Amino acid sequence: MVVAIFGESCTGKSTLADKLKQTLGAAVYSGKDYLRLAKTEPEARAAFSQMLRETQVPVIFVAAEKELLGLIPDNAVRVLATADLALIRERFAKRTGGRLPPPVAAMLEKKHGCFDIEPHDIRFVSGESDPEETCAQIARLLASR
Q: How many CA atoms does the CB half-sphere of 130 hold within 13 Å?
């Protein structure tokens, strides 16, 4: 039972994962947390990929990099987290002391929407979607698989 929550930075992925963790009692892996599973990155990726394919307990995988989407097993519930660019900028600025440096703003603008074409079962729109309802949707989808 794998739930993959993916999308750009500052779209509510971690917030959603935290709420879902409480609901499902799931382990959460974020980004490259899987590196702790082995001594080398290729070994860790292989071990993590195998674990995701074979797990019988709930696991939540949070990814903000497209390169990590290849680790998601076919039977996973895929949740795309998105947000309006203005909201992403505002949230990112809070991470950088309230000011968004121009190169970072340009990077956020360039990356905005890069996950939108990825296949997903549920779309969570931060600032619009209700996290509790999205967690309920995910739980229903998991129960039906």
A: 4
Residues 6+ apart with CB under 8 A from 118: 6, 66, 69, 78, 80
Please list the ranges in the chain whose pLDDT falls under 50: none
Overall domain count for the chain: 1
Residue 43 is encoded by which pair of tokens?
């070994």
> In 25-130, which ranges are continuous DSSP H helix?
41-54, 85-95, 102-111
Q: Give the domain range for residue 31.
A: 2-143
> Which residues have CB under 8 Å from 54's CB, separation 6+?
none
| pLDDT, tens digit (0-9, with 9 covering 90-100), for 52-70 | 999 989 999 999 999 999 9
pTM: 0.93
